[in-house]
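Retro notes, structure queue

What went well: the backlog is down to a handful. What didn't: a couple of records were mislabeled last round, so from now on we paste the full input next to the output in the thread. Example, using Glycosyl transferase, group 1 family protein from Sandaracinus amylolyticus:
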Amino acid sequence: MIVAMPATSFPTSPRDVSGLFVLGMARALASLGHEVEVLAPAPDHRDAWTDPAPGVRVRWIDYARPRALQRTFHRAGAPDNLARDPLAWLGAASFPLALAAAMRDRRWDAIASHWGVPCGLVAGAMRGSARHVAIFHSADVHVLSRAPRALARAIAERSDSLVFVSARLRDGFLALAPEARPRSHVIAMGVDAPPSVARARRERFTLLALARLVPVKGLDRAIRALPPDVELVIGGDGPERTRLEQLARTCGARVCFLGTITGDDKARWLATADALIAPSIVLPSGRTEGAPTALIEAMSAALPVVATDVGGVREIVTHEHDGLLVPPDDVGALRDAIARLRDDATLRARLSDHASHTASSRTWPALAPRFEALLAQGSMRRADAGGRNTNVDSASRGFST
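Corresponding output:
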């Protein structure tokens, strides 16, 4: 198959972690013999990569002039960019039109759109005869719940299948468009299988956080909860960094800010830390996490996790089995959970063993066939009806132009 993958977030370079799970899914489908064309908003610079992996090509879509006004996406991500930068709203209006123009007169066998708004809506309208699988992430249902129900229903009507990264998101969407239930699926995003890295524990008990530094990640709570003999290492960057650094100094907490880490650097820290911490919160607007892939990355590296029970987190982490869950915004409970992990090596070992087993079914090699099946169903039905069997012959064709 030739698969289009419109998305509002995608890494612009090997060092960028924005929309990394979109790249992971594209690579996984390509590894099964399909060709993937990602359509994503262009960043405000010109050096973004266009061929990130064999079988994957990126088409960066300009949506504002001058280029410096392309500030809706990337950086801190669309929700936080829109909250902080009034000029970011220009792109919120122009990108859907630019995406529609980019998809006009192009032909794919299937479309896997990431984020219902705007990509699912636009892809459904522009799909032609292609099968459309709409994939919903954390902010989608929050946005749709504030819009007329007709918007959610329009996405549902124009999608052959709907995939939600958590059951919580699915249930929220079905409250808006209950007719979509038979075509709805819950499949969390996956991670690449971790490289083999020798364990190298530090002398001091070390927590690792892998997160964009934005309010919903709740890292200020982790800093406040940190026992004096525990170190927190934060891999990530974002607009909250200065505030978090100041808070760490004020609290006298042992916090190391690494900035964004990827590849071998990330693997080394996953092999060095004693546990991963994910203290996400529910924002006053009601927005929270979907199904954070950082949890799956840590568990795949046999790292126990301590996380707040928000969004779809409990669909990844089972309390006392492969991690510890605490209520959101409860610094005391978070501190107690950290202390338990620090003091109980037997608990850490048990959680670690179970975490590794849990994550084994959440890697891209394990998940890709499920997405492949959803994307292929429409092509197979058309072939059975006497049309061209796109599953057989499209893999040998180049990308549409």
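Agreed that this is the format going forward. Reviewer comment attached to the example: The chain has 15 helices and 13 strands.
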